[in-house]
């Protein structure tokens, strides 16, 4: 391995405390991200992907809490860090781009003033430096610098999302965490934003952790892919290889949920049924109740098996020896 | 007129020269935003027509014109051959609204959170279905909700919107529309806010409604792949004009308008290999304020020639049932470019 990972997540577990007990929204999640890498996380709504992201960024608030595991950023443990210590890492080391730019930007402040806020809070006092850097990042994302004087409502959806990304880059962080940044955009704006993120990554070298429910969106842009289902990572691998040889019926189902522009027009089914209740998840493989390929083994929870193309939590890939032992 | 269905004497609904302008620029502003300009189309019985385009192309304005949320600035909508502007009496308007209901984009905002989901369906029936006596409405509502795959129906009807998932809520949106026994459902981005696995179920539902109940759908979306999945015909809209229209396979496999190609290229296809390095497409559809003549796509168009600067192209039929508003495509196919006249039809 050439570089040390910029982010190491080990056994991350997040619980929501509810009146009916505590629900594990993220259950023993492991992930390493190398410098400059683009990692996509996909899964249905409610699979825990956004909660995982918030857990990594230490942005959870009650009733959610990190109940176990560790998140190390450049070797530093983030779980249990005080707000004060975290403040020195936020924006400078890790920045977050939220799903809805319209809600994340302050509607009554000009863009420039919002950029200035961020930089001042994180220790940059010189107005000249602030102005220069604000103009720089805005140019990076392809927005005219006159828009530093614009209010969010004066920008289109794509521009707002770009402005959010510009803001995330103010301090050239090593890791940018993105929670469905393109879901409010149309296809053309989506594609152009993804291209832009890739290009910025090439120029500046930051790593990206990108969460989306749209598997086809990351197919051409992420280096590695993590598929989550019911709070767990069920498949991890190089993106192209996962697309070519999906290792779990769940991944296959997500891929089959997209109509294609080419080839025969076929009837699709998506994934029938709905995800399990996390207050009382199935004891075996959590996908088994919806799985077209389930068999006896599925009563036991699968570990991650090497499939040749990826790591997949599915007994279909269990080595014969292991099967015999049971 | 290039976008009529192959057969049928009177289309179910027809728009001729449909135009909607908005005044912008504050109290003293005298500027006009041309949201929809001189749009002609028709939708037949038992037909799903997709209207695709980017944000800001005017597609939602078309939906609202059909739903009579807005009145047209110019042009006319004909329902079963009768102009909508002549629908005067409350009875006629109610009948139209029950025949042509709308399903909205955001299932979280379009249901009243203070009422059980049965409320909207039963109210709709009280207004639009005098044939069903009061004590039979609940039964009918359960039947409709069950037919949309919501189970158990009685239980679902008694829930509040917050107790349902996005997909379930959007099914309730369709249930409200179906309670009126509609002829045409105007569905404005009905699946864009939904999760992938749920999305396909709703698309299948639209196909099922067409095949089993003969309901037509105007399916408005920016997702051209989903349009291909459900639609019989597709209309591509750009900056208030129709850029291209025709049978869905024909338009998507042999696009004539450069804008349609741009849309097609933007769709990520995981089954296709990584495309050659493309630059980020920086363009956005223009806000059409006080437009001068000329093609509205010319600033982003790789094919633009001199005539595109001066003459607004008209949607003309270039192949059987397949029309495009493009000077270059027309020239390539040996059809003389036609200027957009005032209210051409």
Largest interface: A-B, 43 and 42 residues
**CATH architecture term of the largest domain in chain A:** 3-Layer(aba) Sandwich
Number of helices of chain B: 12
- Helix/strand class of chain A: alpha/beta
Structural class of the helix and strand makeup of chain B? alpha/beta
How far apart are the termini of chain A?
35 Å
Strand order of the largest sheet of chain A: 6-7-8-3-9-10-12-11
- What is the radius of gyration of chain B? 21 Å
Strand content of chain B: 15-25%
Beta-strand proportion of chain A = 15-25%
Query: What is the H level of CATH, i.e. the homologous superfamily of the largest domain in chain A?
Result: P-loop containing nucleotide triphosphate hydrolases
Anisotropy-based shape of chain A: globular
Radius of gyration of chain A: 21 Å
Unreliable runs of chain B:
1-7
CATH class of the largest domain in chain A: Alpha Beta
- How much helicity do the residues of chain A have? 25-40%
- State the order of secondary-structure elements of chain A, H for helix, E for strand: EEEHEEHEHHHHEHEHEEHHEEH
Distance between the termini of chain B: 6 Å
SSE string of chain B: EEEHEEHEHHHHEHEHEEHHHEEH
Total beta-strand segments of chain A: 12
The average pLDDT score of chain B comes to: 85
What does this structure look like?
The complex is a heterodimer of chains A (326) and B (345). Chain A is an alpha/beta fold and 326 residues long. Chain A folds into two domains: 7-93 and 174-272 and 308-313, P-loop containing nucleotide triphosphate hydrolases (Rossmann fold); 105-170, no CATH class. Chain A is built from eleven helices and twelve strands. In chain A, strands 6-7-8-3-9-10-12-11 form an eight-stranded mixed β-sheet, sandwiched between helices. In chain A, helix 4 (111-121) packs across helix 5 (127-140) and helix 5 (127-140) crosses helix 6. The longest helix of chain A is centred in the middle third of the chain and has 18 residues, at 187-204. The radius of gyration of chain A is 21 Å and the shape is globular. With 345 residues, chain B is of the alpha/beta class. Chain B contains twelve helices and twelve strands. Chain B has helices spanning 59-66, 90-99, 118-128, 134-147, 153-157, 166-178, 196-213, 224-230, 248-253, 258-266, 306-310, 327-332; strands at residues 13-24, 31-43, 48-52, 74-79, 82-83, 102-103, 184-188, 216-221, 233-238, 241-247, 316-319, 322-324. In chain B, the strands form two sheets. Chain B has an eight-stranded mixed β-sheet with strand order 6-7-8-3-9-10-12-11, sandwiched between helices. In chain B, strands 2-1-4-5 form a four-stranded antiparallel β-sheet. In chain B, a hairpin with a 2-residue loop joins strand 4 (74-79) and strand 5. The N and C termini of chain B lie close together (6 Å). Chain A binds chain B through residues 44-45, 142, 156-158, 185-193, 195-196, 199, 213-217, 219-220, 243, 253-255, 257-263, 265, 267-271, 274, and chain B through 54-56, 165-166, 195-201, 203-204, 222-226, 228-229, 249, 252, 262-272, 274-275, 278-282, 284.
